[in-house]
Structures
1.
Amino acid sequence: MMEVEQLFGWAGQSALCGWLILVLLPRNKALIFIAQYLLPLGLSALYSGLILTHFFSSDGGYSSLASVRVLFENDAVLLAGWVHYLAFDLFVGSWIARHADEIRLSRLLQAPILIATFMFGPLGLGLFLLMRAIMTQPMPVQSEENHHAY
């Protein structure tokens, strides 16, 4: 098995490639497929291999914060946790990019949302959901009675 540090580097570079596709490159089906499916699938395979080979032989668990701390003392499980974030955040970022294009959100406005998703996952998702709610709000219809020309 590759060294944990090597896997860490590979996972980070793979995720970064996906984020660069989303933020900098033109949108087309092939690139979106790579960013939304191919790279997260590779990261998911790495996660699965790490978690299946190390989780059950590790101390700790999910019952308390102290148990999680002990669980992540194992470098392979810690890497699995990191790869979990990389895979899910990239998938969510791709979802955001696709839906942002559908509502015609400018790529200049998408970039900071995608960067926030890359760096802080749920913060970026929250920003996009708020932006989408604002942009898809129906415009109020003015009635003739309320519309006076002076």
Note: The chain has a mean pLDDT of 90.
2.
Amino acid sequence: MPQHFLVKSEPDVFSWEDQVRNGVEPWTGVRNAQAAKFLRSMAVGDLAFFYHSNIGREIVGVVEVVRPAYPDPTDETGRWVAVDVRAVKPVARPVSLAAIKAEPRLEGIALVRQSRLSVMPISPEHWSVLCEMAGI
């Protein structure tokens, strides 16, 4: 059974549209130990919500891990990792941070508890609720 995650990107740096246009893309630049731990735990076939942070603050699509963790090519220290993801589909309805905070079934979700974390796991229950909210 695949694991589920949420990955964040600032849309003015790398957007959902960029992900779709590029097809498979390395998820690089993660420089937080906890977020990197989650990247290391990802396996081929795992799914993640693609979340626009800072601008928009909403879930806009779903990506699939197509290559597990490997040394991040943007990291000269060799400490950090990346995974490769491919766009699966956009959401029918973007799910805003405000809507996530307002949904009682999402109480305790890492996106609210650890708002600065750029990669986080999503429980099967929360994944189901978010898919419902997103129309997928």
Note: The beta strands are 4-9, 24-27, 47-52, 58-71, 81-96, 119-121.
3.
Amino acid sequence: MASISKTNAARLLEAAGVQFELVPYEVDESNLAADHVAAQLGEPVEQVFKTLVLRGDRNGLFVCVMPGDMEVDLKVAAKISGNKSCAMLHVKELLPETGYIRGGCSPIGMKKPLPTFIYESALLYDHIYVSAGIRGLQIKINPEDLIRFVGADIYPI
């Protein structure tokens, strides 16, 4: 089996002594959706969380980490982040702003720390999956460890 290269997100967790597991999956460039990732992992899509970066009209960039089967409610996201309105960050801005690409955006280890909001259902599980920072690799982590590590707030977003 090929060795799994450690991503920046994995190195940061390791350095902090946070327990996690790197889990590879087969990438389909034509389908980067969370349900495809979940199917590859053999896990329920509700346990595979996607990392969305949004821009608020008042407070700039922030992150919503939510189950793969949900869509972000922009009104709620704006409210919890202290904005009047917000929109998804354009895909062309993702790499320069976060250091990550679409389909490989991790809530861990962005270029600069951003306010992060994790959907409350994460707490229903012993572990959830989030991107390890590249396509084809997920981090399996206890949600409370992730929340503590990134300094996230829990919200019904």
Note: The first strand starts at residue 20 and ends at 24.
